[in-house]
Amino acid sequence: MTHVAVVGAGPSGIFATTALLKRDDVRVDVFDRTPTPFGLVRYGVAPDHLKIKSVVRTLHKTMSDPRVTFRGNVTLGRDLTLDDLDREYAAVVLATGAPRPRRLGIPGEDLPGHVSAGTLVDWYNGRPAAGQAAQARRVVVIGAGNVALDIARVLLRGGGLAHTDVTDAVLHVLNRNPVREVRVLVRGGVADTKFTPAELLELDKLADLDIVVDPGELTLTEDDRARCETDRTVAARVEAFRRWSTRPRTGAPRSLTFRFRQAAEELTGTGRVEQVRLRGGERVPADLVVSAIGYRGEPLAGVPFDPRLGRIPHVRGRVGPGLYVTGWAKRGPSGVIGTNKACAIETVEGLLADLPVDDREPGIDATLAAHGTRVVTWRGWLAIDAAEIALGAQNDRTRTKIADLARLVEIGTGGGPTWLT
Ligand code: NAP
After folding, report:
1. Residue bearing the CA closest to ligand 1, atom 2
2. What is the pLDDT of residues 113-161, one digit of tens each?
3. For position 418, what pLDDT does the model report?
């Protein structure tokens, strides 16, 4: 049997694992720094996107294959090094994503009250050690992609998230201090945004909400008009905003305003963000500013990194001898979850073509034990899963996520039921 290590148990790492299992003589050890599998499906996809989250069933099937070993709560660079993996495995696949925020690069960016999308998404998705982020009535979101829409929608849903798996703490904050106004600032024109039509149309389903768009900000260039003729996505996007721009306000208790061609030039305030100053001088009030302007990869010790593109350089997924990359760490942060499947297949094709026959049994557990790492196994995850479902059932919810790292590790390493009370 030849053993391959996959670092990252998100969709990319698991799609790579699925592709590796096509070879009967391969065994896969999957590592993740969180005690739980599924990466961005658990901690990135918005809690109300239940249909997208249902991909977990496919991912679960691969991870429960007897040829796969999950080791959660293991961080590369802390609990083990790339050299450790190199020593023990015939090949290593990095599927570590793009967890770092892009920076706005404007004055005031480091004031309290400005957070990156990742910080806010971590909070509402219950990622362990995420900060407290959404005590705000007026929120400004900078960015024009689907993550900006997720954030606007989730904050405006507030207490309407009880049917999801968000933590009790998140529900409590959004119920007690509901967000009333979200303004999305887009630096380009409407045709250039990255919002996808399905995600825009979802906003129509939110109750008690006025969607506000100034028709004067929707002007199209010649080029935009030509693109509307040839690109259905661009046309649908423009049409959605046109429709909203003609709707009168109803006086609904909550509003979602989109502003176009409005670049933020500075975040201002005394001790914390109070306003966003736009090019042209206008000042937009805000209790919280969220920049949803994309992500970057994270440099890993011993792994090449392209600081300009924010990802690991590679040729069709090959990084160096025995080292491979897949997913956002390979392509950068773009595409939907399914995009990572073809990406993983490309990487694994190259890996399998290079793979030597290597019958050694990896002794990585000795290294982890020497570090005192409390490894959460697949059985451990199943215990966490059961604990979250039981916690949810106490309040007639399908699941309530557990966000406390110590508690997750305790349950995942055998301390289960005591935590349920
Ligand atoms: P994205 O789609 O790349 O959008 C980032 C946006 O930020 C762009 O519109 C960009 O505008 C803007 N931006 C960049 N730098 C800026 C700056 N300094 N100031 C103002 N705006 C700036 O990224 P994302 O929203 O993080 O999404 C990442 C990926 O996940 C995407 O492929 C997305 O579709 C996917 N996703 C999908 C779903 C879903 O399917 N439901 C949900 C969430 C995310 P410019 O064009 O002006 O550069």
Report:
1. 145
2. 999 999 999 999 999 877 666 678 999 999 999 999 999 999 999 878 9
3. 41
Beta strands per DSSP E along 23-163: 26-32, 68-72, 91-94, 100-101, 114-116, 138-142
Tell me the residue type at 137.
R
- Please tell me the distance between residue 101's alpha carbon and the centre of ligand 1 in angstroms: 11
At 417 the pLDDT is 44
Q: Whose CA is nearest to atom 39 of ligand 1?
A: 146
Residue with tokens 């073809």, as numbered in its chain: 342
Tell me the best of 55, 187, 227, 309 to mutate to test the pocket of ligand 1, counting ligand atoms within 8 Å of each CB and taking the most.
Answer: 187
- Closest atom, ligand 1, to C-alpha of 147: 25
Identity at 91, one-letter amino acid code: A
Q: What is the DSSP string of 349-371?
A: HHHHHHPPP--PPP-HHHHHHHH
**CA 227 / ligand 1 centre spacing (Å):** 20
pLDDT digits (tens, 9 = 90+) for 335-394: 999 999 999 999 999 999 999 888 888 899 999 999 999 999 999 999 999 999 999 999
Element holding 390 (H helix, E strand): helix 378-393
Asked whether the beta carbons of 64 and 17 are under 8 A apart, the reply is no
Question: What is the 190 CA–ligand 1 centroid distance (Å)?
Answer: 14
The residue whose CA is least distant from atom 26 of ligand 1 is: 294
Closest Cα to atom 38, ligand 1: which residue?
Answer: 146
Identify the residue whose C-alpha is closest to ligand 1 atom 1: 145
Q: What is the whole-number distance in angstroms between the Cα of residue 77 and the centre of ligand 1?
A: 29
CA 349 to chain centre: 26
CA dist 15 → 73, 306, 381 (Å): 20, 24, 19
pLDDT digits (tens, 9 = 90+) for 187-216: 999 999 999 999 999 999 999 999 999 999
